[in-house]
Amino acid sequence: MVNIKPVRLRFAPSPNGYLHLGHAYSALVNKHIARILKGELVLRMENIDTTRCKTHYENAIVEDLSWLGVDFRKPFRRQSEHFSDYQKALDELEKLGLVYPAFLTRGEVKEIIAEAERKGKNWPRDPDGTPLYPTDERSLSKSKAREMIAEGVPYSWRLNMDLALRFSGNDLYWYEFHGNQTKKVIAHPELWGDVIIARKDMPTSYHLSVVVDDALQHITHVVRGNDLFQATSVHRLLQTILGYEPPLYYHHPLVLGHDGHKLSKSNKDTSLRSLREKGLTANDIFALLPKI
User: Which residues form the Glutamyl/glutaminyl-tRNA synthetase class Ib catalytic domain (predicted)?
Assistant: First the structure.
C-alpha cells in the first residue's frame, strides 16, 4: 500500500514589521492552494533575528491575516523557540567538515574585492548581485581558528561550497509545481558561493532554519515569492546533505510597487495596517492584488 503523506503548506513571515500587500498576496495564494489540495496551512514566525523581530509585529500579523480571512491553528512555530534544532543541524554539518569559521569583516571583504578588481579580475556575484565571499579562510588551520574564537574575534559559520557539492554528488534539482503540472528545475547552489550557515551568537541563518523547519513540520508544498526562486538551490543542497525529503515548490509572482520594485516593510503606504486605517476593507485589498 502506498503511504500518501498529508499535504501541508506554511506561510512564514518575519515579525520585523507590518505585513504589506505582497505578504497578503502570498498568504492568500497559500490558502487557495491548500484548499485545492485539501491540505493544511500552518503559520510560522521566522524570528531568528530576535533584535529586529518584535511581539507587537507578531500580534499584528496574526490580526491582519485573520482580517483577510486567513486563520491558523495555534500554537504556531516560532523559530526563536527552536534554536536547539538548528544547532543540531549545524553540528552535523561541522562533523562532516562542510562548514568553517569565517572572520573577515565587511570592510576587509570590500578591500579584498577592490584589490582583485584593480588587478583586472571580475569578482563573481551571487544571483542577488552580492559579491561572493572570499574563500581563503577555507584553509585556515583549526588551531588558528580556535585561537581567534577564544580571543573573541567575531565570526560566522560558512558552507564550503566546493566540499558540499562533492558530498551531495552535484546532481541537484527540485520540482516546481503549477496546477497539476510539475517541472524539474536544475539547482545551481555554486552560484551562491560560501553562504552563511550560522553566526557566532546565533546557531542558524535563513537558509539553515528554513530547511530544518520545513523538514520538522513535514511541509510538502512550499509556496513563496519568486524572489526566493534562486535561493532554492541552496536549500536543495542542504536538504540533500542533511537527509531531508524535499517539498514541491511554487514561486509565485511578486506584487510590485508603483516604481516596479519589490514592496518593502519600510514603505508604510502598502502596509495592511495603514490601508485598514484608511478604511479599506478586505474586499478592497483583494481588488488591489493580482487574480489568484
Answer: 7-279
User: Which superfamily, per CATH, for 1-81+256-292?
Assistant: HUPs (3.40.50.620)
In 63-180, where do the E strands start and end? Answer: 77-78, 99-102, 156-159, 173-178
Q: Which amino acid is at 3?
A: N
Neighbouring residues of 257: CB distance < 8 A, sequence distance ≥ 6? 263, 267, 270
Contact 197, 163 (CB under 8 A): no
Within 10 angstroms of residue 119's Cβ, the number of other Cβ atoms is: 7
pTM reported for the whole predicted model: 0.94
User: What does the pLDDT look like over 8-45, one tens digit per residue?
Assistant: 999 999 999 999 999 999 999 999 999 999 999 999 99
**Which H/E stretch holds residue 275?**
helix 272-277
Amino acid symbol at 84:
S
Coil, strand or helix: which one is 170? coil
Site of grid cell 558561493: 193
